[in-house]
Specification:
single chain; 129 residues; globular; mainly alpha; two-stranded antiparallel ribbon
């Protein structure tokens, strides 16, 4: 599966950003990560506000959201405190893309997706040979 379409990449980065910020909020509030059921609910909420996305892509993004959240927490200079995370949302379904938290997370998500696209494309080329 090729994920090279730039609007598709942007959509996936937006959904992954939403899921990662949701993971960070859950972790800050409870000390635990989102359950699989919560990830599915967050994905459906995001899709109601932003439109659909392929099932396999949703599953792949939901599966990696916790790992990306852990990575961002380890390497970011941004503090993911309760106020910063609360300011990440305009409302329950929309992120504030001017928030420092969202900017940082979105960048990490875009890099994650683009690096996955590159390795997927290399695998596809290798498989065709």
């Amino acid at each position: 599966m090729s994920w090279s379409n730039s609007s598709d990449t942007q959509t996936r980065a937006d959904l992954l950003t939403y899921l990662v910020v949701s993971q960070l909020i859950r972790r800050r509030l409870t000390g635990k990560w989102l359950t699989a059921q919560h990830v599915v609910q967050c994905t459906h909420l995001w899709m109601c506000a932003n439109g659909g996305i392929d099932l396999l892509q949703r599953v792949a993004l939901g599966s990696c959201a916790q790992g990306v959240a852990m990575h961002v927490m380890q390497v970011s200079k941004v503090r993911f405190d309760a106020k910063a995370l609360a300011d990440a949302f305009v409302d329950h379904a929309h992120l504030d893309y001017q928030s420092r938290v969202v900017v940082e997370v979105h960048y990490a998500c875009t890099v994650h997706i683009m690096s996955g696209s590159s390795s997927s494309n290399r695998r596809a080329k290798r498989d065709r040979q």
